[in-house]
């Protein structure tokens, strides 16, 4: 069992890396001009220079010798993160438009300052999850355009602190500081903070779930109470994630695969079963109950039945004309059906149309998958792209270039880790496998697979960036 788990973990690792590499390679190979090539080559030089410099001065050894207190490191990094990201959102102000104005207007409605767009929200109820969260801050601080960006800054700081906690637990203090520092300088993360959107919110919730599960892995006394409490808390968090972005089921499926297949024999010890069985039962039960309660709440608020499945997103995901990206004509069709027959019927009809399209034999799935990978993982310039209305051409080019350099550098370091891990496969201790890093990786793979079945956009990989940061920084886990 341990041998099987060891090989399954490396397979998941390689799959995630291969998918990222495929997206980037396809983006570079099909793009006009040399901007992506230049970004990749610059990233390669930066990685080489940093690794050489760090090795030359023995940076890690020097850091360890100084015996810093983790509390001081965390406080300093959290302060720097807050300052850097707050300065950016204060200097670079963006008025909510398009999708972001929908989040903003819905939050206003929750706060009692406007009507709900009943038709649109009943078609896409996940809009309401983040908007409900944001409305609490509107009630306290008012509805100024800066409220959402400042909330995003705070969420980003919390995400960084959880990256720090997970890396400190699973690698070491040096790795934890490195991970938090990378999150601070991540260009796209900082750019997205200026917008009224759900990505920083549900990413923070995802890392809260990871921290809970990491704590579960550290329990040594077989506490049933801890399993029940953590299961309930995880269920609530997953329901909140699902309310903002319908990916909660991905983390539940990943949990069972991780526990049964990736952790080896330790999953089946009496102590682990005593802790994780109640955790799984209560996590699933609370997730389902909280999800039902949320659906009932928004049905009551809107005064109509909201759709239960995103048929439009599946239809668009297999649209060969837009290659899985936003389709205005499909959106208009969905709206027309919803006006006459209701939101649930409209989404179900779009799902039936998607099935017919998939089974028609007219889809070149290889070409569709290629273009979806390019759109989803080919670059990380979405933060600059969605800000283009407020940027000068040179500013846009610079921010997009810097975002891609950072993103490509992460994947290059990931490649180094894959090589090291494969070379050291025989010496890997299976008992050290199946930790929270592996669960996060498996969840990332699940998100990628799920995204290949529905509509894609560059910003949807936002939550994957901190997971990759956590992976590339866990040097002691190679």
Short description:
This protein has 478 residues and is mainly α. The protein is built from 22 helices and no strands. The protein is globular, with a radius of gyration of 22 Å.
Map the helices and strands.
Layout: H1 2-30, H2 35-56, H3 59-65, H4 70-91, H5 98-110, H6 118-123, H7 127-141, H8 147-170, H9 173-185, H10 187-192, H11 199-218, H12 224-244, H13 248-262, H14 270-302, H15 311-317, H16 328-341, H17 343-359, H18 365-377, H19 382-385, H20 393-423, H21 436-451, H22 464-473
Helix pairs in contact: 1-18, 1-20, 1-21, 2-20, 4-8, 4-9, 5-7, 7-12, 8-9, 8-11, 8-22, 9-22, 11-12, 12-13, 12-14, 13-21, 15-17, 16-17, 20-22, 21-22
Which properties best describe this structure?
single chain; 478 residues; mainly alpha
Q: What shape does the CA trace take?
A: globular
Give the overall pLDDT as a whole number: 91
Q: What is the domain tally?
A: 1
Beta-strand content estimate: under 5%
Count of DSSP helices? Answer: 22
Major β-sheet profile: none
H/E order of the elements? HHHHHHHHHHHHHHHHHHHHHH
Number of strands: 0
Rg measurement, Å: 22 Å
Class per helix and strand makeup: mainly alpha
Flag low-confidence runs: 427-431
The N- and C-terminal alpha carbons lie at a distance of: 20 Å
Residues in helix, %: over 70%
């Amino acid at each position: 069992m341990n041998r099987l788990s060891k090989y399954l973990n490396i397979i998941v690792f390689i799959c995630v890396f291969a998918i990222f590499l495929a997206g980037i390679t396809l983006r570079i190979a099909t793009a006009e001009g040399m901007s992506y090539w230049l970004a990749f080559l610059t990233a390669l030089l930066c990685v080489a220079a940093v690794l050489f410099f760090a090795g030359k001065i023995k940076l890690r050894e020097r850091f360890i010798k100084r015996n810093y207190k983790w509390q001081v490191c965390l406080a300093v990094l959290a302060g720097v993160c807050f300052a850097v990201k707050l300065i950016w959102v204060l200097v670079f102000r963006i008025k909510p438009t398009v999708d972001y104005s929908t989040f903003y207007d819905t939050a206003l409605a929750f706060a009692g300052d406007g009507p709900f767009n009943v038709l649109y929200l009943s078609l896409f109820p996940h809009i309401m999850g983040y908007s409900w969260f944001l409305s609490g801050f509107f009630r306290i601080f008012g509805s100024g355009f800066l409220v959402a960006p400042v909330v995003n800054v705070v969420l980003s700081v919390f995400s960084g602190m959880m990256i720090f906690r997970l890396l400190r637990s699973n690698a070491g203090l040096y790795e934890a500081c490195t991970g938090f520092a990378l999150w601070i300088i991540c260009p796209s993360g900082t750019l997205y903070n200026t917008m009224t959107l759900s990505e920083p919110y549900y990413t923070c919730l995802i890392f809260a779930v990871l921290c809970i599960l990491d704590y579960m892995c550290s329990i040594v006394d077989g506490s049933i109470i801890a399993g029940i409490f953590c299961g309930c808390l995880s269920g609530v968090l997953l329901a909140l994630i699902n309310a903002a972005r319908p990916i909660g089921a991905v983390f539940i499926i990943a949990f069972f695969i991780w526990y049964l297949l990736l952790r080896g024999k330790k999953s089946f010890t009496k102590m682990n079963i005593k802790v994780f069985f109640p955790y799984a039962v209560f996590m699933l039960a609370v997730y389902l109950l909280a999800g039902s309660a949320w659906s009932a709440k928004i049905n009551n608020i809107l005064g109509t039945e909201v759709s239960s499945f995103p048929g439009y997103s599946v239809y668009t995901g297999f649209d060969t004309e837009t290659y899985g990206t936003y389709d205005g004509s499909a959106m208009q069709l969905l709206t027309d059906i919803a006006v006459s027959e209701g939101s649930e019927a409209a989404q179900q009809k779009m799902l039936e149309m998607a099935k017919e399209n998939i089974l028609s034999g007219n889809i070149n799935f290889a070409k569709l998958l290629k273009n979806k990978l390019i759109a989803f993982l080919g670059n990380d310039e979405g933060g600059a792209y969605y800000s283009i209305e407020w940027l000068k051409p040179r500013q846009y080019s610079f921010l997009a270039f810097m975002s891609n350099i950072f993103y490509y550098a992460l994947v290059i370091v990931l490649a180094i880790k894959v090589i090291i891990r494969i070379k050291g496969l025989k010496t890997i201790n299976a008992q050290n496998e199946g930790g929270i890093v592996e669960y996060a990786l498996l969840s990332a793979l699940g998100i990628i697979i799920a995204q290949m079945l529905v509509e894609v956009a560059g910003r949807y990989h936002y939550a994957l960036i901190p997971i990759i940061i956590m992976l590339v920084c866990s040097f002691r886990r190679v």
